[in-house]
């Protein structure tokens, strides 16, 4: 009996050791490049420590005057991170709800169409969208913000999976028929009945759309538009330290935005972490 307990304890110790080794390797894999980038941006031409790069980056006036493409790219990426999830949700949520209520037999076709961009390389997508963007440029102008239409195509597979899981978790037909029997219009059904019940799925789809939009480079570069990634690439040819510093700052900014989205996607009735810590513990009887 004691020998079996000893073997189980030794097995648990080996598992704990293996777990810590894996976690340490993964942390080093991600943090080592970041530490190297931070070290690179804090050295001057003579190899001495300097904060000149970060001081320049924090000077908005200097950035606007010396690196206009960087400011343009940042504003374009911020606009794309707002417009792309908005178009995606306006397109997918009503369509998927309508298919479930009226034509459930077409759900396979909608799923196929939404997952199709996964099989299309970015260069093929750009070639296919070039005639479309000729008309977009003619009617709406050459602003980078209109890349949101192409980005919506890119995020369709991931957003569809998230929204489909959310809609499968609720009885859409019963909820909508109950709301309609009480006199609600379809807009009220969507805004006050369906969306609150799939709030977590909507936030997850928005989370994925924002993450993809903030990191996209290929389509913007091939369409000769300047988002933040393209601006960083162009800046790296003339000032590598500023380009790397912008990359680090943008990584922190993206992490904060995505963390805020994931935090907002918590359950409505869930207790906040700080409130949970403040909750008094029950004394054992």
TrEMBL record:
<dbReference type="InterPro" id="IPR000515">
    <property type="entry name" value="MetI-like"/>
</dbReference>
<dbReference type="GO" id="GO:0055085">
    <property type="term" value="P:transmembrane transport"/>
</dbReference>
<keyword id="KW-0813">Transport</keyword>
<feature type="transmembrane region" description="Helical">
    <location>
        <begin position="109"/>
        <end position="129"/>
    </location>
</feature>
<dbReference type="Pfam" id="PF00528">
    <property type="entry name" value="BPD_transp_1"/>
</dbReference>
<dbReference type="InterPro" id="IPR035906">
    <property type="entry name" value="MetI-like_sf"/>
</dbReference>
<feature type="transmembrane region" description="Helical">
    <location>
        <begin position="74"/>
        <end position="97"/>
    </location>
</feature>
<comment type="similarity">
    <text>Belongs to the binding-protein-dependent transport system permease family.</text>
</comment>
<dbReference type="GO" id="GO:0005886">
    <property type="term" value="C:plasma membrane"/>
</dbReference>
<feature type="transmembrane region" description="Helical">
    <location>
        <begin position="135"/>
        <end position="158"/>
    </location>
</feature>
<keyword id="KW-1003">Cell membrane</keyword>
<keyword id="KW-1133">Transmembrane helix</keyword>
<feature type="domain" description="ABC transmembrane type-1">
    <location>
        <begin position="74"/>
        <end position="261"/>
    </location>
</feature>
<keyword id="KW-0997">Cell inner membrane</keyword>
<feature type="transmembrane region" description="Helical">
    <location>
        <begin position="17"/>
        <end position="36"/>
    </location>
</feature>
<feature type="transmembrane region" description="Helical">
    <location>
        <begin position="244"/>
        <end position="264"/>
    </location>
</feature>
<keyword id="KW-0812">Transmembrane</keyword>
<protein>
    <submittedName>
        <fullName>Putative spermidine/putrescine transport system permease protein</fullName>
    </submittedName>
</protein>
<keyword id="KW-0472">Membrane</keyword>
<feature type="transmembrane region" description="Helical">
    <location>
        <begin position="201"/>
        <end position="223"/>
    </location>
</feature>
């Amino acid at each position: 009996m004691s020998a079996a307990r000893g073997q189980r304890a030794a097995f648990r110790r080996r598992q704990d050791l293996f777990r810590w080794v894996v976690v340490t390797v993964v942390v080093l894999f991600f943090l080592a490049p970041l530490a190297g980038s931070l070290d690179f941006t804090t050295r001057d031409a003579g190899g001495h420590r300097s904060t000149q790069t970060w001081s320049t980056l924090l000077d908005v006036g200097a950035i606007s005057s010396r690196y206009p493409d960087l400011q343009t790219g940042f504003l374009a990426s911020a606009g794309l991170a707002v417009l792309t999830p908005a178009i995606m949700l306006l397109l997918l949520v009503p369509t998927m709800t309508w298919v479930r209520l009226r034509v459930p037999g077409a759900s396979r076709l909608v799923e196929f169409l939404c997952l199709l961009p996964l099989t299309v390389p970015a260069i093929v997508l750009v070639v296919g969208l070039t005639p479309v963007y000729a008309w977009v440029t003619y009617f709406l102008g050459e602003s980078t913000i209109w890349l949101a239409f192409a980005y919506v195509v890119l995020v369709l597979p991931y957003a569809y999976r998230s929204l489909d899981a959310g809609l499968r978790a609720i009885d859409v037909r019963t909820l909508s028929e109950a709301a309609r029997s009480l006199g609600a219009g379809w807009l009220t059904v969507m805004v006050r009945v369906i969306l609150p019940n799939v709030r977590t799925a909507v936030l997850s789809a928005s989370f994925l759309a924002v993450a993809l939009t903030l990191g996209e480079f290929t389509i913007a570069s091939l369409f000769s538009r300047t988002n933040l990634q393209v601006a960083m690439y162009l800046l790296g040819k003339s000032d590598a330290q500023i380009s790397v510093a912008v990359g680090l700052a943008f990584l922190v900014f993206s992490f904060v935005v995505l963390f805020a989205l994931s935090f907002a996607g918590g359950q409505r009735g869930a207790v906040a972490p700080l409130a949970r810590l403040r909750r008094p513990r029950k004394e054992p009887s």
